## 1
Amino acid sequence: MSAGQKAKAKTEKIVGKAVGKTAHAVGDDTTAAKGAALQARGEARDAKEKSKGKLKP
């Protein structure tokens, strides 16, 4: 996994979780959903990068 992609995945997961929790606490469901989507995108990017590393001979 490249360091840049790993950092990007970690950042998306952290920011998405923070945005989702903050928006949920305020009662903004639309922004909370966007935060959850960002977190899911980060998790998917992380899984993709981990699987690429396992396929190399």
Note: Residues 13 and 39 are 4 Å apart (CA to CA).
## 2
Amino acid sequence: MLIRRRHTITALAGAAALLTTLTAAPAEARARPAPVHPSLRKHLTAYYDFEHPVPGNPAKERDLGFSGTDIDLVNGGAQARTKDGAHRGSRASLQVRQVNPQSAGNDDWKAGVYSASGVPTLRAFNAVKGMTVMGWFKTTGPNPALNTNTAAPDDRYGAVGLAGVLSGNSDGHAVRALLEIIEVNGELRLVALGRRVDGAASQTFAASQDWRTLLPDGEWVFLAATFDFDTGAMALYRNGQRLDGFYTVPGDPWDLSGPGPHRSSPTDPRGIKIGGSFPQNTVERNPCDCRMDSLMFLDSAVDGAHIRAQYRLMTSH
């Protein structure tokens, strides 16, 4: 299937590569990717378990999905791989963090890929009817981080970036589909944020529960966000269970009043961002002090049964 098509390195060679090229990756890291539920494989556009460095370049991570969109481990490089797997099938994860909160700069550890002309391997998200972003997350430090773009010494960012797919006209920040923590009516909340049309308004679905309860410090949590661009429905899940929440933008921000079917803009996304914005490394914005594992980006708004099946599969191995 799609995982085998991309997985051409033998288990022995993969383990050897991790042993010889990764500064901070665990010596016993597996060469095989974590399991993917069969019902999701045809939709698995991009998948990163942070145990598969690009041969010859350990500062890049191989895509185990069907798109082949390898990503950069920005600023952290190979050292960003850490010996802390989120589930039984994992031995390593990605550490992202703010490096120097006292000075303006763009040295925060994050991951992703960016192209101002669009990333052609992400074409599955071009004129797509739905998307899903999911994976494992663990907060490891103070969030949100101190804002290095303002003069006030105690000012903090209004959001914490988790993982998302950029829009087709993004500067490295604007997204088509995103999981993040952001201020809603003056209060930080875990949200799914989606934009159907490039440059148009976004919609946000916010979890009702306190984000610190949903993402307790030092605890691995499996999160998922779904975006149905045809119907306007969005949803959030935690450890396979759907979360109560609410939409924050009244009216019809995705412009769904006309005849359907409705899809996203017919443009290739400009990339993927993980752990903060601007994967081209031009600006620090909304860094997350956290670890991430087994990140999945799907070209369909899958339902709760599929998300629960993936969660159970990973936690049973």
Note: The first strand starts at residue 44 and ends at 48.
## 3
Amino acid sequence: MSSSEPPRVDFSGLVVVADPEDPVATEVRDFVVESGHEATVLDVFDAAQMFTVTVDDTAAPVVEPVLPMMLRLPAPPLLRISFDAEFQLNECLAHLWAVAALTSAPVINRPAPGGLGTSVSASAALTELRAGLPVGSVEVFSTRPPEPEGAVDAAGESGGGEGSQWWVQDLASWTTAPWPQRPPGSGPYRARWSDPDPLFESVVVLGDHAWPCSAVELDGLRLEERSTEIVAQLGLQLASVVWRISPDLDRARPVVVEPFPDVEQLRMVWLGLGPRLLKVLFP
């Protein structure tokens, strides 16, 4: 059942495809409206019904209406509600994939040929490989909290130069705890070596522009430049890169790439991000 309200027939503004309760979606909508443009937040079902894709052998596919879009698709439910509901969701997602991939209008998070998902994986090591980065320490997945014993790199060293603390993450709740503590949740789990007291910096990226979330001077680390390179390599447009900074502030390593930054991250850089977002959506 739909939880959003489809706009009127002559609507000509931004369509944000997201859960109507998504705070980023509502913040972007409100900002766009306050800037003098139209905007609406539609769930997957209403958004799919709004667009038509026409395929003709003699011409390129046509998407109507031609409207700028921003995709923040919610994750599918972990448990099947019903076969009919799952079938309807998948049909709507397939249609939106075609719409967002083929439309001539600007699309934030335009899907790649491989689908609506991104190249970011729950595995940090796999994400590093896809981003063209050297892989860090060993990474272990398990149905039980993995113990650090035996977790060594190819050279047989614990930590692989990445730190002396074994961190365990619950993949259902995304909470993390240092071993031997256990994160809340019932698994499955992911574990990796890192620093005992890591320092972090987040960088929000939109296309070829980037903004650090803190005011700490880290110019020598080139975090903005490196973040845009990583995001582009992963086929993303709007994302955030979380960097682990060494205690002496001389080294930085990306530890998380978030393809759907949360509202707190975006608010910290909104003075730069907001105007840039308008230029991308309404060129």
Note: The first strand starts at residue 14 and ends at 18.
